């Protein structure tokens, strides 16, 4: 009877454990499903932070956490020049407090948007104005930044550097960094001659969700292609060096003929040795 009780208790314990495990697996599946649905339901036009430099593409909003007010990099199509424009604090009528935090800022005017393009496989990007005729952000050897060229060349190339906190620095072809500089009169302008990355050289960058998703899908495709190529290469090596079929080695017809010839010659040599041995034996007898 005691044996039956022990057996019954163990079976009951196993049943309870399996039930909990199934519930936990179901909960995990629900969480994953909710995250995927949330991502799928997200508006493609939503402005988000990039998590990798490859995700910086398409319409892009670049702003700097200056004090007392953050500033955005704008392009004035009428004046044909870059302007660092303070981002106004949106007030809530009842409380008088700012309704939008620094990280929640999004562009409110087309002059604040730059279009990022890149050559496939290249780490560098081009920043083109989103308004006017489309001019590229450029930096010369003296660190002067402008946006008055319709064609892109080396001086229009920028390498985005993403930091762990999510902020981005932009390095030009001369390995100098884009930064905010204060000039006479207290006004601000962009310079491209900073040797190191400090507060002035770090920007917040936002892209539209659909372009971030596009970059992730492209990266997955690249990884899949790399995996397939690696598998094919391994399969070719296996076909070349491994034995096929019950430990037998598959060889060409020429190799087979050579093998038979060697075997025949070997048998003839053995026969001659046996004959000589027998003749010597007969002489001594």
From TrEMBL:
Residues 8-24 have a biased composition (Basic residues). Signal peptide: none annotated. It comes from the Eukaryota. Pfam families: FRG1 (PF06229). Keywords: Nucleus. Residues 25-40 have a biased composition (Basic and acidic residues). GO terms for cellular component: catalytic step 2 spliceosome; nucleolus. InterPro entries: Actin-crosslinking, FRG1. GO terms for molecular function: actin filament binding. PANTHER family: FRG1 PROTEIN (PTHR12928), FSHD REGION GENE 1 (PTHR12928:SF0). Belongs to the FRG1 family. This is Protein FRG1. It is found in: Nucleus, Nucleolus.
